[in-house]
Design brief:
The longest helix has 18 residues. The protein starts with 10 loop residues before the first strand and ends with a helix. The strands form two sheets. Strands 3-2-1-4-7-5-8 form a seven-stranded mixed beta sheet, sandwiched between helices. The protein is built from ten helices and nine strands. It is globular. By secondary structure, the protein is α/β, with parallel strands linked by helices. Helix 3 crosses helix 10.
């Protein structure tokens, strides 16, 4: 049985943004922030060339205690944008849980916040899953559904885990576990979701890792068609999967990239 979510400094949500100005659903963000004073939204502007930075700064001015904005001049890719957002959150803010969510809100802020109820003493990782079931609303294009299921099957075999959906962009971590998962750079700019599962297994062993996570079917997920992943990436995807699998076959810690000092990321992102 899930427990009631905490209401004191409960959740910080990292939201990577790259040229989101035209699709940014400001009204939905405002409505959520008005009703969730205990949640912080940390937007990472990943080298956008549109005016999304101004949009985000306007939201921060309206909610100075609930919105943080980090801006970078150069586009780094979603993996690094999310990673640096997590680093900022556990260095600069004090929250029990840290999550990441797609800026188009295909998973709603409300549902993301609600997933904190699934944390228990032994659970460090909760992730949403786009499972079609009675009462749920999961809207995906046929193309993305078919490709997603093929990819999920391959990833499941590689991980040797019974996970239905590794790629859903709604994942939550305890503050402590996030330090382990996001300390090092990721191998792939886009498949870092897969790498998260590899890291859990790599650091804790398969049996212990399984007991640290829980997959929760979402009530609603809507494909707004704003994916930044180009169709041509699917040619590179298999190479990335190979590199990820190879990286985590090595002994613990032997081939992980040593990151720059965490304070470097914090200092260079303060504007």
């Amino acid at each position: 049985m899930k427990k009631p979510p905490s209401t004191e400094n409960s959740l910080c949500i990292v939201i990577p943004c790259y040229n989101e100005e035209k699709h940014f659903q400001r009204a939905r963000y405002v409505h959520f922030l008005d009703h969730h004073p205990e949640v912080l939204l940390c937007f990472v502007n990943d080298g956008s060339t549109d005016r999304i930075k101004d949009v985000l700064e306007g939201l921060r001015l309206q909610f100075p205690q609930q919105v943080d904005v980090v801006s970078y001049e150069k586009n780094m890719g979603k993996a690094e944008a999310v990673r640096r957002g997590f680093i900022r959150c556990y260095i600069c803010h004090n929250y029990i849980h840290i999550a990441y969510l797609d800026a188009d809100l295909s998973t709603s802020l409300w549902e993301c916040a609600g997933l904190t109820a699934y944390f228990e003493e032994h659970i460090g990782f909760v992730f949403g899953s786009r499972i079609m079931k009675m009462g749920s609303t999961i809207i995906r294009s046929p193309y993305r559904f078919v490709v997603g299921r093929i990819l999920a099957s391959i990833i499941g075999l590689s991980l040797q885990l019974k996970v239905y959906d590794t790629q859903c962009g709604c994942k939550l971590f305890t503050r402590e576990l996030s330090k382990t998962i996001f300390e090092n750079t990721f191998t792939s700019r886009w498949l870092f979701d897969v790498e998260i599962f590899h890291r859990l297994i790599h650091y804790y062993g398969r049996e212990r890792a399984v007991h640290k996570m829980v997959e929760v079917p979402l009530q609603q997920w809507i494909d707004y068609g704003n994916s930044k992943v180009r169709p041509s990436y699917f040619l590179q995807l298999w190479k990335d999967l190979y590199k990820i699998r190879k990286r985590y076959k090595e002994p613990l810690g032997s081939n992980l990239t040593v990151p720059a000092p965490i304070t470097t990321y914090v200092q260079e992102s303060i504007t």
